[in-house]
Amino acid sequence: MTRRFDIAPLPDTTFGAIVTGLRLAALDASAWRDLHAAWLVHALLVFPGQHLAREEQIAFARRFGALEFEIAALSNVKADGSLRLERDNDDMMKILKGNMGWHADSTYMPVQAKGAVFSAEVVPRDGGQTGWADMRAAYDALDAATRAKVETLSAYHSLHYSQSKLGHDTSKNDGEYFGYGLHDGPVPLRPLVKVHPETGRRSLLIGRHAHNIPGMDRRESERFLEGLVDFACQPPRVYHHAWAPGDVVVWDNRCLLHRATPWDMTQPRVMWHSRIAGDAASESGIRHAG
Predict the structure, then answer these.
(1) Positive or negative: CA dihedral 151, 156, 159, 164
(2) Parallel, antiparallel, or unpaired: how do β-strands 130-134 and 238-241 relate?
(3) Domain-by-domain residue ranges, the chain?
(4) What kind of architecture, by CATH, is found in domain 6-279?
(5) Distance set, CA 3 to CA 22, 30, 38, 62, 211 (Å)
(6) pLDDT tens column, 185-231
């Protein structure tokens, strides 16, 4: 059966594809099956010019499974329409700055997210790209000794930890950030090598939330994890998307890292994020209090 839309792999990288010739708000069952199969292969799908309504984005995200949360704005525009400026340095600004480090979503929660649908409403003139990095290809590119080493290691994941690296006192709340992820529950321990539950491919599970590898001194752990991120997030394993209003992407959080990039925050940027919940059978961390 002929596929009724076009998929063009992203050039000069190991993952990702641009999908055209379909409307995400009007997918039939056959098109959805083809799209889901492409997502598992490419891990990141980019859909230019979709202009989804909020309820349409939520409905599309639900195609992939239950949602961790339906939709949230990632924006420097406040609810009253005024701009949140860098000099404000409130909790939400600190979260926006934190998101500029490479990470996977919800690794600090009991169940890691499966993926996310992300869309652009308002974009700045310059900057504000979103980057992704292929942790499958990063694992494959490791030398034999490092690959054998990471297979034996795990790391704790905490949003308190990653935000504290930016000087964010997460024990306080100024009311600007609603606190998602800054929980006081057990800190998940996750293997550095993740096996994808649907494809069976191995990938690195690292990023800014990972810390304190058991059996390592904290400084040694930090150096090792930072070195892995530096190695992994290099061409040809990275792609940065220059947004246009109406663009939509969906990515597989089980094998990609992502990050925001800086922009002139005197210009508004309004993005919408729907987070797809992970399957507890494959995305749960080992629960520890430490």
Answers:
(1) negative
(2) antiparallel
(3) 6-279
(4) 4-Layer Sandwich (3.60)
(5) 11, 9, 11, 22, 44
(6) 889 999 999 999 999 999 999 999 999 999 999 999 999 999 999 99
Cβ 105 vs Cβ 253: under 8 Å: yes
255 token code pair: 């094998």
12, exposed or middle or buried, with CB in 10 Å at 0-12, 13-18, 19+? exposed
**Model-level pTM?**
0.95
Residue 21's contacts (CB-CB under 8 Å, 6 or more residues apart) are: 4, 5, 6
Contact 38, 7 (CB under 8 A): yes
Quick: pLDDT tens for 188-199.
999 999 999 999
5 touches 20 (CB < 8 A)? yes
Cα(232)–Cα(236) distance, integer angstroms: 10
